[in-house]
Every structure is written in C-alpha cells, then in structure tokens.
Amino acid sequence: MIKYFKFWGSKEIKPTTEFSSFFTNADPKTKKQVLSGVVRKANQDQKDLIERYNQVKTKTT
After folding, report:
1. Distance CA 17, CA 34 (A)
2. Most-buried pick from 12, 23, 47, 56 (CB within 10 A)?
C-alpha cells in the first residue's frame, strides 16, 4: 500500500533509454533491418564459438 502512495505522489518521470525510444519511434522497416542485423551477428558469433570449441577439442585429443 505504501508503494502505491509513493508512486501516486511521485511526479518524477523515469528517463527512457535510447533503445526503448528507438523501438517506440522507429518505422517498421528500420526495426526489421536492425533486428535482422543483430540476429545475423549473433548467429555468426555462435558459429565462431562452436568452431573454436571444436578446434580446442580436437587439439586436446
């Protein structure tokens, strides 16, 4: 109950981050481009990680 009153009486607005403001205000085409780039980079990083793991595994055996 106290949290409710603190929230209700508070006039402070929390600042938004660049990330949240981008995805709130960006057009769908730009969002799609950014997200596809992020996914592409994550997939490449994952492939590189697996490749390094396999190289280390074959060197030790």
Report:
1. 16
2. 23
- pTM of this structure: 0.58
Tens digits of per-residue pLDDT, 4-24?
Answer: 555 555 555 565 778 788 888
Half-sphere exposure in the Cβ direction for 22 (13 Å, CA): 10
Q: Write down the domain spans for the chain.
A: 2-60
Element holding 45 (H helix, E strand): helix 28-60
Amino acid at 1: M
Contact 43, 51 (CB under 8 A): no
The first and second tokens of residue 5, run together, are 């009153």
